[in-house]
Amino acid sequence: MDVYEGKAKKIIPLDDGKVIMEFKDDATAFDGDKKAQFRGKGWLNAQISAHLFRVLEENGVKTHFIGIAGDNRLIVERLKMYPLEVVVRNVVAGSLKKRLPLEEGTELPEPIVELYYKDDSLHDPMINHHHARVLGIGEVELEEMERIALRVNEILREYFKERGIILVDFKLEFGKNPRGEIVLGDEISPDTCRFWDAETKESLDKDVFRFDKGDLISAYEKLYERITGEVPARR
To answer: What family does the entry list (predicted)?
Structure first.
């Protein structure tokens, strides 16, 4: 079976319906125009994702997560992935600043859910339900993904709030398992979310790399320690 290598992960299929998801130390931004490597980043993203998948599973959200298969590897259920990114926004930041006349940091009166078509050659454009249906994704499937995304937001927003962190926004990906269920896939990490310290508004995510805000690994380690209560074992 072919190994798929993306910008931040390797996907290694197994013969038993499972997949190894290997997190790399690479960091990219701005459609790959900015690149670097940070020793320990893959370990941190793998461990943070595993921890958050467990939190969601404990609260009734089905995910593809099975277990940790090594320092920077997770073992997950193989899914037939949808070519969509489902983004949930709680606070104005990133590209939303260009679409709404609101200041960065403004808390939204309700979460905004956005859909993006996963295609690097098109730069992952934002789409709506009409576009998605043309691409063969049914309305019932779209509504289920959005329902799960909002439930994930409800769980994680409160979880992070209790730890002094603002969940600004995040990206999710979904797939169908062999039983025909739509479940959460991919990762939940500081590569795919925006986290701000509730007091200082310090970024604890990939924006540190994007906008040269400081040391990326230190930010990821701080997030790891906040959510797990443990000092990171390695860099």
So the answer is: Belongs to the SAICAR synthetase family.
127 lies in some domain: yes
Q: Hey, what amino acid is at 160?
A: F
pLDDT in tens, 177-229: 999 999 999 999 999 999 999 999 999 999 999 999 999 999 999 999 999 99
Percent of the chain with pLDDT over 70: 99
For residue 86, give the CATH number of its domain.
Answer: 3.30.470.20
How many whole angstroms separate alpha carbon 85 and alpha carbon 107? 22
How far apart CA 88 and CA 77 sit, in angstroms, is 24
Please say whether the beta carbons of 165 and 181 come within 8 A.
Answer: no
The total domain count for the chain is: 2
pTM value is 0.96
**CB-based contact 34:210 (threshold 8 Å):** yes
Q: Which residue has the higher pLDDT, 60 or 33?
A: 60
**For residue 103, how far is the Cα from the chain centroid?**
24
> What CATH number did the domain enclosing 53 receive?
3.30.200.20
Q: Residue 115 corresponds to which amino acid?
A: L
DSSP state of 186: S
* Residue-number span of the structural domain to which 68 is assigned: 4-77
Residues 50 and 93 grouped into a single domain: no
